[in-house]
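Interim report to the steering committee. The following record documents the input for FAD synthase (153 residues).
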Amino acid sequence: MTRVVAQGTFDLLHPGHVHYLEDAAARGDELHAIVARRANVTHKPEPILCARQRRDMVAALDAVDEAHLGDPEDVFVPIERLDPDVIVLGYDQHHDEAGIAEALAARDIDCRVERASGREPRYDEELLSSGDIVERVLRRRGGPGEGGEGGRG
Ligand SMILES: Cc1cc2nc3c(=O)[nH]c(=O)nc-3n(C[C@H](O)[C@H](O)[C@H](O)COP(=O)(O)O)c2cc1C
Ligand SMILES: Nc1ncnc2c1ncn2[C@@H]1O[C@H](COP(=O)(O)OP(=O)(O)OP(=O)(O)O)[C@@H](O)[C@H]1O
């Protein structure tokens, strides 16, 4: 039984997330998704939705066998608990495979580190970024003070 782990913020779910999780699931028999805590999302604006809601949405995806709230302090806590055979990084995820592989080896965790493929938009209107979804909402629904087009867009 090959256990796979994938991870991310998964704020406003979109087909890119689905592609990533399906790609990761295809690399083993069961897929566990770790959902980042707000405090650990430091390389971009904080997520709009709370971690529990983000976890619940990821858990609802067919590709995902179980979704977990990430540890608030130590990203390796869920890894040591889950003891995966493969960790799949997202195609543009800011983590370094070699660095993670070293950290796993230092913890005697026998686990491969792989990187998923990216998915390109299939039509102009399609948004494959949570940040871009927020931008569109602000543009279309932002109040007059926020430069939005106002109204229900
Ligand atoms: C192997 C691995 C384990 C992680 N575990 C946790 C965790 O336990 N708690 C957490 O808040 N974030 C965890 N993360 C970090 C988040 O997934 C990271 O902030 C995430 O990559 C968000 O960035 P992204 O959504 O832009 O990809 C982990 C990342 C990796 C690569
Ligand atoms: N278009 C895509 N194709 C494949 N994987 C994707 C795509 N978009 C996001 N992912 C992957 O999903 C995981 C979670 O991504 P994240 O939660 O950061 O969403 P995001 O849409 O990339 O956020 P943002 O674009 O606002 O930074 C990451 O590993 C990322 O590589």
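The two ends are 48 Å apart (CA to CA). The committee is asked to note this result when reviewing the revised timeline.
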